[in-house]
Amino acid sequence: MAVYLDHAATTALDARVLQAMMPYLGAVFGNASSVHSAGQEAMHAIDRSREKVAAILRCTADEVYFTSCGTESDNWALCGVAQASKRKRIVTTAIEHHAVLRTCQALADNGFDVVVVPVTQAGIVDLDALGAAIDDNTALVSVMHANNETGIVQPILQAAALAHAKGALFHTDAVQTAGVYPLDVQALGVDLLSLSAHKFYGPKGVGALYVRKGVRLANLLWGGSQEKGLRGGTYNTAAIVGLAEALSFAQSEMQADNAYTASLRDAFWQGLNDKVHSVCRMGEGESLPSVLNVRFCDVSGATLLFALDQAGVQASAGSACTAGSLVASHVLRAMGLDEGQAMQCVRFSFGKDNTMQQVQQALDAVVACLGRIRS
Ligand code: PLP
């Protein structure tokens, strides 16, 4: 059996979540916007799901909007605020996911003044540069909660305070931290927050966006009255139920799951240090328990990934969205690596379904593949 070490790209659907979704893929098929009882049964399930998510985010149910994915949540947060604001500047960081960076590019193409702030070599946003970039014309500051390539956690509290000091709104892409960190939006001090179910053992194709009450947000879609008329479209009841169920499990099992995945990751990193030369870990500071980004200093990451896949170990170079192309990761470049160095990095991301035996198997495969490549 292959060893899957790419949980930052996506996770398998939890069997308990699938079970909770099943009625809404079958007998309870009503359109949640219909007034008859079949529709209302679906709407009740959506209402319960919204309340569950709100309880975890420590907000009210009417501050939770369901979307089709993390990308959509990010797009809506950025474009929705930009279009509804009189201010014209958007500030973000060089290590954001493309869902944020390319949306910012589109906003820049449409006349917005976008400032992309650098990060340190450790992979942490430069707070001085962030503070300097935010001015009285800034509508929104968007800083991710943790980076998907390095796992490095960003100083959200400080970043949000800098935004608020200038009257700007603050958005965080919490796609990698949902289910891993308690996402109390009050404690985090955020106005908008994105998450995506498939990163925490929920279904693909469903996400959520928290929008603090009072934040002015332009429509994402024009259509029916769903999501207060801001995002029309018939509800995907099963997916929404799956998101809420997966988030609830992840929240209640967070401590044990985090300790377990960290123990697998640490054992893997220790093993690499013991058995392999010329490796270094990318990023410094507080990190997601699951993610390990390693630079194999004299080897092409793509070659190693291909060899590992042949040997039954599935990992990733950079983010999954760009893994198909041979472009060096913008995150690693932003941390100061040159193109060649950035192409030597491989991301291993562990999950609750991995075992210590698989860690050993993966280590053996890395040693064998490196031996062949280096010779
Ligand atoms: N933001 C981050 C940090 C991510 O890691 C991802 C997915 O890799 C996304 C956004 C996009 O999420 P989705 O795949 O649900 O569109």
What does this structure look like?
The structure is a single chain. The protein is α/β, with parallel strands linked by helices. Helix content is 42%, strand content 14%. It has helices spanning 15-25, 37-57, 70-84, 98-109, 127-133, 156-165, 185-188, 237-252, 254-275, 301-310, 330-334, 339-342, 356-374; strands spanning 3-4, 64-67, 89-93, 113-117, 138-142, 169-173, 192-196, 207-211, 279-281, 291-296, 313-314, 345-349. The strands form 3 sheets. A 7-stranded mixed beta sheet has the order 2-8-7-6-5-3-4, sandwiched between helices. The radius of gyration is 21 Å and the shape is globular. The mean pLDDT is 96. Bound molecules: pyridoxal-5'-phosphate (PLP).
Could you give a quick summary of the protein structure above?
Helix content is 42%, strand content 14%. With 375 residues, the protein is of the alpha/beta class.
Helix and strand succession?
A: EHHEHEHEHEHEHEEHHEEHEHHEH
Q: Which percent band covers the strand fraction?
A: 5-15%
| Largest sheet, strands/sense/barrel | 7 strands, mixed
Q: Please tally the helical runs, counting DSSP H or I stretches of 4 or more residues.
A: 13
Could you list some keywords that capture this structure?
binds pyridoxal-5'-phosphate, 13 helices, 375 residues
Give me the secondary-structure topology.
Elements: E1 3-4, H1 15-25, H2 37-57, E2 64-67, H3 70-84, E3 89-93, H4 98-109, E4 113-117, H5 127-133, E5 138-142, H6 156-165, E6 169-173, H7 185-188, E7 192-196, E8 207-211, H8 237-252, H9 254-275, E9 279-281, E10 291-296, H10 301-310, E11 313-314, H11 330-334, H12 339-342, E12 345-349, H13 356-374
Parallel strand pairs: 1-11, 3-4, 3-5, 5-6, 6-7
Antiparallel strand pairs: 2-8, 7-8, 9-10, 10-12
The protein binds pyridoxal-5'-phosphate.
